[in-house]
Amino acid sequence: MTESLQVEPESRQVQFGHAVPILRVADFDRSVEYYVEGLGFTLDWSFGRFGSVTRDQMSIMLSEGRQGCSSTWLWTAVGDADALYAELLDRGAAIRHPPMNFPWGSRELHVFDSDRHVLRFGSEGPEDWPVWRMDGRGWGTLVAAGGWHLAEAAR
């Protein structure tokens, strides 16, 4: 017989806070500048080549060459992916792709940081917009009759 490993909320004695990722960066100063100028974060603190940047409730630690790993992907919820996209375009951020709807109900834009980490910013997607997905050929949309229509840019 298998016992449940699930812990009931009222029996927990320790509460978890927000996860704070640590990203490895090649140049701490360059990364901080990009997060502040390009993405609208604030530098909270730094100690040597390690520090933390924050925007609203999202914090990220940046570490020059010691912790973390390269090519990390992060997802965070935002109030409006389209409004953030417009802001980040004005700031000159490196957009991986503009807001798209995904089958799990999220409307996301993807942004590269200065070390090519991917930051995924997602808000709730509108129900009546087409859903996008990626396969080996590129991005496509769901077709009402079934199947997928490959986007022009991917052909």
Please explain how this structure is put together.
- The protein has 155 residues and is mainly β.
- It is 14% helix and 40% strand.
- The protein is built from two helices and eleven strands, in the order βαββββαββββββ.
- It has helices at 28-38, 81-91, and strands at residues 22-25, 42-47, 50-55, 58-64, 73-77, 94-101, 106-112, 118-124, 132-135, 138-142, 148-150.
- The strands form three sheets. The chain has a four-stranded mixed sheet, covered by helices on one side. It has a four-stranded mixed sheet with strand order 5-8-7-6, with helices on one face. It has a three-stranded antiparallel sheet with strand order 9-10-11, with no helix packed on it.
- The radius of gyration is 19 Å and the shape is globular.
- The chain starts with 21 loop residues before the first strand and ends in a 5-residue tail after the last strand.
- The model has no long low-confidence stretch (mean pLDDT 85).
